[in-house]
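pinging the channel bc i need a second pair of eyes. not urgent but kinda urgent?? the chain im working w is below, pasted from the shared doc
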Amino acid sequence: MSSKSEKLLRVNMWISKYLLMAFPFVAGTVIWAYSTPGHGIELHGLIWEIFSWNFMIWFVLLVYFIMSLVFWQTFREKILTTLTFSKERDERESFISGRASKATFYSTLSMLILLFFLSGLHVHINKKPKEEVVDGKHGTITIDYKFEFVNTAKKNVDGDENKKGNFLALDGIPFTQESLLLFLILYHIASYHIFTRRRLGDA
C-alpha cells in the first residue's frame, strides 16, 4: 500500500471513530427535533445550531463512509474485520474462516429466499357475520402470491366493506426495508460467528 493510501486509510478510520462517537448527539438532535412542534423547523439558538451542523456533517461523512465501504476493498476489509472480530493469524484460522464464510453464504442465501417468498405471500382469514353463514361455513381463507418489481400505491376502491369481518390479514412482510436490511446484517454477522465457533470446536 502506498503512503498516500495509508494516509487516506488513517483519515477514514478517524472518520469512522467520529461517526461512532457523534452518533448519540445525532440521535439526541433527531429526538429533540421530533419532540417539538413543526419537527424542529422553528427551533433557534446557539446550541441548536451546533447540533444541527454536527448532524449535517455527520450525515455527509456517513455517506462518504458507506461509499468507501462499497468501493474500497482495503478499507472494507479493515472495518468489517474489526466489526465481526475476525482473526486469521495462521493457516488453521484461515481455513476455518473460509469454511465459515461458505456456510454463512449458503445460510444467508436460504434466508433471503425465505424472505423473498414471504414478501409476496398474502393470507386473509375472514369471519362472516351470523346472517351470512351458509351451510355452517363461518369464514373464508384466501391465499395468493403477488410479485411486483416496483411498489404501487394501493387505492381503496372497495371501501370499508372489504374490511368487514376481517379477522386476520397478512400482506407480505410487515417490516420496513430498513429493518429488514438491519436484520440481514445482524443475521450475517451472527451466522458467521456461529459457524466459526462450530468449526473451531470440530477442529
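so Confidence is low (pLDDT under 50) at residues 154-160. and The first helix runs from residue 3 to 34. — does that match what u expected or am i reading it wrong
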